[in-house]
């Protein structure tokens, strides 16, 4: 078992990076940690949300004190308040293992009180979840976000790449590639292979 900066990964989780597998919560969280590494200094003002924290926010966070506590916990990698928060969005409506079937991505710019939702399938249930998540994230920082812009997003052409697309889009957006031209099916396949190789190497060394 690997525990990398609070991201836990078992060999069975790492194997999910091989297509045509669907990425689980652990794969998304570990992918976010590696993305932070890849972003380097530019990740200092970014908070990438653990899917478990997203689930808590969506399904268990109710009052202002809980939202304020969560906001204080959403620190950027540099340790201070984040300028940008990115989270994978799930269509799950209960805290059960395997309760979701699709991932998309929500990015919230705190100072601008603005959010954008990126969905490689255009799933209506994820659109509703993203709207609720944007409002909850804004509440964590004492703000009131407008509904997110449902941004044009590169489309997956299969039923298993939604998590990998969410990770690839997160990397593109956080690097400032607003057109997302680099996110193609081939690039997503390369990302899956890279994540698999890095996870395998780290598990071997653990």
Note down, in words, how this protein is organized.
By secondary structure, the protein is of the alpha/beta class. Helix content is 43%, strand content 16%. The chain is built from 7 helices and 7 strands. The protein has a 5-stranded mixed β-sheet, sandwiched between helices. The chain has a two-stranded antiparallel ribbon with strand order 1-2. α5 links the parallel β6 and β7. α2 runs parallel beside α6 and α4 crosses α5. The protein is globular and about 45 Å long. The model has no long low-confidence stretch (mean pLDDT 91).
Could you outline the blueprint of secondary structure elements for this entry?
Layout: E1 2-4, E2 7-9, H1 11-14, H2 25-39, E3 46-49, H3 51-59, H4 64-73, E4 84-90, E5 103-109, E6 114-118, H5 124-140, E7 149-151, H6 162-174, H7 185-205
Parallel strand pairs: 3-4, 6-7
Antiparallel strand pairs: 1-2, 4-5, 5-6
């Amino acid at each position: 078992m690997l525990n990398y900066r609070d991201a836990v990964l078992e060999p069975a989780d790492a194997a999910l990076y091989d297509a045509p597998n669907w990425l689980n919560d652990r794969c998304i969280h570990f992918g976010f940690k590696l993305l932070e590494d890849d972003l380097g200094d530019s990740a200092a003002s970014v908070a990438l949300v653990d899917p478990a924290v997203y689930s808590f926010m969506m399904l268990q966070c109710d009052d202002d004190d809980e939202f304020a506590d969560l906001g204080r916990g959403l620190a950027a990698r540099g340790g201070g308040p984040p300028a940008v928060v990115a989270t994978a969005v799930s269509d799950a409506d209960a805290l059960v293992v395997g309760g979701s079937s699709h991932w998309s991505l929500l990015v919230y710019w705190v100072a601008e009180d603005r959010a954008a939702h990126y969905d490689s399938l255009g799933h209506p249930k994820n659109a509703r979840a993203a709207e609720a998540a944007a409002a909850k994230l804004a509440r964590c920082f004492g703000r009131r976000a407008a509904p997110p812009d449902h941004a044009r997003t590169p489309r997956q052409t299969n039923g298993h790449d939604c998590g990998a697309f969410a990770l690839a889009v997160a990397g593109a957006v956080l690097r400032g590639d607003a057109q997302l031209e680099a996110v193609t099916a081939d690039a997503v396949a390369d990302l899956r292979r890279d994540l698999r190789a890095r996870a395998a190497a780290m598990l071997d060394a653990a």
